[in-house]
Amino acid sequence: NYNFFFTENRGDCVCLICQETVVLFKEFNVKRQEQTKHANAYDKLAGSERSEKILKGADPWSKWFSHLFFSHDTVRGLLEAQDEETIEEGIHYVAMRNLFVREAKEAMQVKVEKKTRSKHVRESAERLEMGRVMEEWSEFRKKMNPDSLTHPPEFIVKPRGQTVWEGRSVKLHCTVAGWPKPRITWYKNNVLIDAKCPMHCDFFDTAQYYASALNVKGESSSVATIVVKNGFSPEHGVTFETTIIDKFEVAFGREGETLSLGCTVIVYPTVKKYQPEIQWYRDSVALKPSKWVHTHWSGNRATLTLIHLNKEDEGMYTLRVNTKSGFDAYSAYVFVKDADVEVEGVPVAPLDVRCHDANKDYVVVTWKQPAVEGSSSILGYYIDRCEVGTHHWAQCNDTPVKYARFPVTGLVEGRSYVFRVRALNKAGVSRPSRVSEAVVAMDPADRARLRAGPSAPFTGMIKFTEEDPTVGVVPGEPTDVVVTEATKSYVVLAWKPPVQRGHEGVMYFIEKCMSGTETWQRVNTGMPVKSPRFALFDLAEGKSYNFRVRCCNSAGVGEPSEPTGETVVGDKLDLPSAPGSPVVTRNSSTSVVVSWAASKDVKHLAGYYIECSEVGTNVWVPCNNKPVKTTRFVCHGLSRGANYVFKVKAVNAAGYSQDSANSDAVVVQPAIAIPSKPTGVTLLEAVKDYMVLGWNEPGDNGGADVRGYFVDYRTVKGSVFGKWHEMNHQAVTSCTYKAENLKENVLYQFQVRAMNMAGVSTASLPSSSLECKEWTITVPGAPVGLHVLEVRDTSVVVLWEPPVFDGRSPVNGYYLDLKEASTGDEGWKGVHEKVNTKKYIKVTSLKPGTSYVFRVRAQNLAGVGKPSANLGPILAQTRPGTKEIIVDVDDNGVISMIFECSEMNEGSEFVWSKNYQAITDSSRLTFVNEKGRSRAIFNSPSLEDLGTFSCVVTNTDGISSSYTLTEEGLKRLLDLSHEHKFPVIPFKNDMAMELLEKGCVRFWCQVEKFTPALQVEYVFNDAIITQGKKYTMNFDKSNGIIEMFMDSLEVTDEGTFTFNLVDGKAKGTTSLVLIGDEFRELQKKSEFERAEWVRKQGPHFVEYLDFAVTQECDVLLKCKIGNIKKETEITWSKDSIEIAEDDEDAAKIERTDGDLTFNIGKISKTDAGIYEVFLQDERGKDKSIFNLTDAGTLHYGRGVKHAARDKQFNILSVLLLHIRDAKIAASERVKAGVTGEQLWLKINEPTEKDKGKYTMDIFDGKDGVKRVFELTGKAWEEFLFVVDSCFSCSDRARVVGGLPDVVAIQEGKSLNLTGNVWGEPTPEVSWMKNDKELVSDDRYKLKFEAGKFASITIAAVTTADSGKYALIVKNKYGTEAGVFTVSVYNPDDEEAKEEKKG
């Protein structure tokens, strides 16, 4: 049934009337198209008439299609022409094929139909026309597809993204090849669109547009982005100018560090919200942000940060700023030094590890050799691999490979790996290199599809798979088997898969055969390989082999491929030849340019390494750590003024070449360039026919002295300027020039050019129009020749020359003005108030980092003249590496001034001046210059040398310094010179004396600085003494101690002892005077020490008799004895009466080792007396006495005090606990209480009324205890005695203040109390609550600080904290308690109580 005038042509729905194409072949689309455009002409047709009209059509190809529907022979031919392989077809192709099949079946049905003659003729004519059309179509196919093969679609020209304004039209173009002719479909954000509709863009058309090409062989797609801007763009029509400032310099980093590079980008004019495109490059390759590379753009600052530097990061870094008006770029080199090696002599890490030719189970790893091999040549490399997602590194090769390329096999298909490389030499293994990029073990075709990303969105493609006739067939033989790599370590084979292999995939067996034999041996017997690559190891070096490959699948093993031909196992890639001898040229103060001839006939060159060595050291240092492929390299980071030689070596995968010949030695200095242009051309004096001109020197002399200047002139008439003419053909050497032979009253302009050995500079800016007319002014002209020296952060020295024109009277002074460069003319201010008669001045108090402009005005009797030309701007900043003049006094006392410069250029000289004038009197100073160091030696320093000495280094960027020698400074230098001429040996300790055992006397001193040649002379009363029986001398040169020993001091030894020291020309003397009382006192001590030594030869007292008081208040007399034998007699006596063994007191005597004790017990007046102990045997005797009587005030009083200190507590807490018959009421004088387990009664200031019988009754309700004490008579006297002693003791423990009697505190508050404590020794402190001891914890914070302050802190008190608290202090002399009460209240409870009362 043919209801519509449409047919399908290669997937397109084509109208047979107007030949237009509809997007989709659907009834709704076809019907709408026909009703819209052809309803009036064809709606009236119906039935067979309509079908016949449709079949006739209006075009030859439509006739072809009409016959095609009914010609089963044609349909059968087209079907048989289809490929037998599995194909992919679109929906429309499937529909067309079904249509062909259906119509073919209908056509093959036998029909009986009567035809008229006219119809038969018409059909015959149509068949002829059909044959002609088919012949034309066949010719077209041959022309478009000459190889008669089908090809998948391929984009020859891909559509390009565009940015357009809203409302404009845009077209996307592309060119696609393929056969059959691909069908092109367009998608917008994955949605099918009609590509033939005109597109007037609006903002919502911003999207990604896909072009999809489809035929029976496959599909391909490409994407383009359309950006539609709405409204007016502020940058439209603006021309931008880009300036890069604050540029990063050549940078040096070390592996593992982080390095940042940055520039400030100024874009003019400023357009709101407009941002330039910032792109960073390394060696002309654009950098993309990653974990190693971070880029940042903020405001107008572009920053690149390199995280964890590696040698791969070395290279030329470029910042490119793109605007719509163009681009600007800046570049600088970044050097990355190797990290310090862990083991001395090992090589540094290799670099640039990459993966190539990855397949299902195979990958080739390459790297570059490091610049430094270490203490010996590199023996080989180890390759490690790690599966992504794990941290386990596995070594890929057991034997190190020397070739910088290695095939890694045995990978697992579908898994990702990273690799690293380590170098090996005799000293050990290097650190590993930076890991490679991750690589996936998979078929290259699959990788290509993954890398291409997803194709166009779903296009309705259906995959039809017919039974593969090749299933179950043994695969054919591989083709093109070749040896791609051959080294001493391995051979790599590559081949193409067989044509006949089915769809199940094939694997491969590799076989080898040694030349001269016919025996083939399978290499991979265990497991066939999946990749068409294979590396063979363990081959005999120098032997020849043939190789072939077999395919296998589930059906079996196929026939072998053709052999490769004989291959000799060995390195096919030769080492590179040595590069040509390098040529070095000057570049800057820290860099040179090295050029060399390339290595000849080198294959696969990785690059060149450049090394340098300072002349005389023979230590070679790499200039680059990443090989460069060019034959020119700028070596940075060199020392200015140093002399270097250079050499170059090439490197490829096979290894290093021989080193090139060494270059000629070159001194690192800046290259000489032409000077900059002079500035400030002004008129200094004018007469009728000549004018005197002046100008400022160039700011940069180009690295060489300016040799002269050329002056040009031109006439000016109104606004018409004449041509420039030269005034002098021979250069003038000063900054002034007398322009003669001028015409009076004519205006002239002048310009000046400077000249050095490199050439002539550009011309200065023209002067203002100057009239040649005689001056009649009376004030002086402008000073000339302004320049600065000694530029520092806060100071600068400005110098000038007097004006050429003095006026009516001579110049008698100058005024210097300055202003900050950023201010206008109103910013000028004078540096000084009083006139300056000198031609220089030092300006101080400048702001660091600020630029200034200076000018000078001259003065005579008539007044102040006009200012000079401006000098500047001058930046107040100390140049890095600047050194000052230092004054030195050498060992011979010679005074000199020294100035060093590390930036000497060719032709640079040191120029000394005094008061900034050339030194003409050579008799005062001698100058010695040597290699960047100048020394000005004072021949005979005197007051004539006072002044300011300055030194300038010519042919540099104004390197200079000065030193002002004052009268005070000269005096100090002369003193120091005298000390150096006549040195004195310094003493760390002057002579001292000390008394030793046996009464021996030691005289000693210590020398601070001396040489091994030091000699000592010992003198007593001007007489030299020597070593003998009386004197012993010693000089310990390890510590400088000089000693002299005397066995004893006699009367004749009174006088002066002296040590005289001589050390070369240095001398030193130290003395000690022993006369008069000092000598006699020392003599007595000496005799005493000798007697003590004699005493200790027999039994003696180590500690003499003394006493101690026990805890039970017993008094012990004790002493320590030494050097005791069994035969030694020990005798005690009291009041000269010996205590015999049978005496009562003998039981009180005890001896424990070297300790003797006599326990008196509770002391009383009856114990008073003189106690003695005697020691005696055949070696000698000794005795000790202790006086415990009223006469022995010191011992007795001390004993009573010590005895009573502890008794105080016992008497007060035991004796006074007994209460008299009459009940005692508590008062301020009498207080009773309980502390711990003790009851106490305290009587302050006891009197006679306190005598009596004290009784204590304790009753618990059932039983009771009574204790009675008579405090009368002798007990009363002893009590008073003890109490007086106790309270008179100032060392007992006491609470001296700080604690209240009662503390009332609100619940929830924190309580903190501190009590002041006294006692010697420091008392023990404890706290009690309700007679229970407190322990410091989270609730109670107890502290005792500095032995004086005891504190208690209770955080957030509660009512449970209410109670009776006591601070107990105790030492061996007594105990005391500070008692207080804590009351905690709740405000709510208090209010409730008040309400109840109310």
UniProtKB/TrEMBL annotation:
Location of the Ig-like domain: 153-260, 261-335, 873-966, 1099-1189, 1305-1383
Superkingdom per UniProt: Eukaryota
Domain Fibronectin type-III, chain residue ranges per copy: 349-443, 477-571, 578-671, 674-775, 782-881
SUPFAM superfamilies: Fibronectin type III, Immunoglobulin
InterPro entries associated with the record: FN3_dom, FN3_sf, Ig-like_dom, Ig-like_dom_sf, Ig-like_fold, Ig_I-set, Ig_sub, Ig_sub2
Keywords: Immunoglobulin domain, Repeat
Keyword Repeat: yes
Signal peptide: none
Gene3D superfamilies: Immunoglobulins
CDD domains: FN3, Ig
Protein name, per record: Myomesin 1a (skelemin)
Organism per entry: Sphaeramia orbicularis
